[in-house]
């Protein structure tokens, strides 16, 4: 009994020893695995942090533009992003808020487009001239930006007023046909008269005014570029998300529309600033960013 007990005790001691060694080995392995894993974890942590940094801004921008275009997710260059609200006049603006629809002679509005959707009547004190009440409408989402811009200009002593904003299809037809008649009366052929008209008044269905995102200020004379109002807009409009749409040098790209220093279009604060930095017109910018499924 004593012998067997001693042998059992010896076995027990050996088992305890082996068990301890195993525990130490397991602990050592766990430690090594943990060190290696945490070393890799640093890299993963960084890279996942980077992707979480870029993902929200990208998705935020995409959600902002999703109402206008469906293929922004294929954008080769992420749209610029500003995380915090921007104080624009009396309200906190979202610099990421965009209206990216591109409308030109090659990219007319679809046949089933609802021209009246999302429009509001803006206060008459922002208009110039009392007539043409039909033009006193604008996309309601951009009105706070436009109002803030005009208020700021007026506070700086700049006399500025809207002579034309939203237009429905029928109004554009009237304007376009009046232009054609003007050139026919000068002795132009029908084809030449239509060409001249189209460079001055967009063909119905292809005018940016249909979107309610564009406004004409003060006068449709090219001498507008010599006014204090134009100078002010050139310096400040981007801070409110507006761009001058039809540059002198970009006629071939914008669809043959003549230089229109009076015509300004809302795109969004970050986009307006980036476009001006790049020196791109809106067609070039959309192509560069992969915005929309447009024809160039
Ligand atoms: Zn215009």
Tell me about this structure.
With 296 residues, this protein is of the alpha+beta class. It folds into 2 domains: 1-65; 68-167 and 207-289, Muramoyl-pentapeptide Carboxypeptidase, domain 2 (2-Layer Sandwich), CATH 3.30.1380.10. It contains 7 helices and 8 strands; from the N terminus they run αββββαβααβαββαα. The protein has helices at residues 2-65, 143-155, 169-185, 190-200, 228-236, 269-278, 282-289, and strands spanning 86-88, 91-93, 119-121, 137-139, 162-164, 214-217, 242-244, 263-266. The strands form 3 sheets. It has a 4-stranded antiparallel sheet. Strands 1-2 form a two-stranded antiparallel sheet. The protein has a two-stranded antiparallel sheet with strand order 3-4. Helix 3 (169-185) crosses helix 4 (190-200). Mean pLDDT is 82; it is low at 35-72. The chain binds zinc ion (ZN). Zinc ion binds next to strand 6.
Give the amount of beta strand, in percent.
5-15%
Question: Distance N terminus to C terminus?
Answer: 100 Å
Query: At the first level of CATH, what is the class of the largest domain?
Result: Alpha Beta
Based on CA atoms alone, the radius of gyration comes out at 32 Å
The overall pLDDT, averaged over residues, is: 82
The total number of structural domains is 2
N-to-C order of helices and strands: HEEEEHEHHEHEEHH
Bound molecules: zinc ion
- Helix % is 40-55%
Biggest sheet overview? 4 strands, antiparallel
């Amino acid at each position: 009994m004593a012998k067997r007990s001693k042998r059992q005790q010896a076995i027990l001691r050996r088992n305890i020893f082996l068990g301890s060694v195993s525990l130490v080995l397991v602990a050592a392995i766990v430690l090594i695995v943990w060190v290696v894993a945490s070393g890799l974890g640093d890299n993963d942590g960084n890279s996942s942090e980077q992707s979480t940094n870029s993902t929200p801004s990208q998705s935020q921008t995409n959600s902002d533009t999703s109402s206008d275009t469906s293929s922004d997710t294929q954008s080769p260059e992420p749209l610029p992003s500003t995380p915090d609200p921007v104080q624009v006049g009396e309200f906190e603006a979202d610099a990421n808020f965009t209206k990216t629809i591109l409308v030109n002679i090659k990219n007319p509005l679809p046949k089933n487009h609802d021209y009246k959707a999302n429009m509001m009547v803006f206060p008459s004190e922002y208009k110039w001239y009392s007539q043409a009440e039909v033009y006193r409408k604008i996309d309601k989402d951009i009105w706070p930006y436009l109002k803030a811009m005009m208020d700021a200009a007026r506070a700086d002593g700049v006399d500025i007023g809207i002579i034309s904003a939203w237009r429905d299809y029928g109004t554009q037809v009237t304007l376009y046909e009046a232009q054609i008649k003007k050139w026919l009366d000068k002795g132009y052929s029908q084809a030449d008269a239509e060409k001249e008209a189209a460079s001055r008044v967009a063909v119905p269905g292809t005018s940016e005014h249909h979107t309610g995102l564009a406004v004409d200020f003060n006068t449709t004379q090219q001498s507008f570029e010599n006014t204090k109002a134009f100078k002010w807009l050139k310096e400040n409009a981007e801070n409110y998300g507006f761009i001058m749409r039809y540059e002198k040098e970009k006629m071939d790209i914008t669809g043959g529309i003549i230089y229109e220093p009076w015509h300004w279009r809302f795109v969004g604060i970050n986009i307006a600033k980036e476009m001006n930095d790049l020196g791109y017109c809106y067609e070039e910018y959309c192509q560069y960013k992969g915005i929309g499924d447009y024809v160039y």
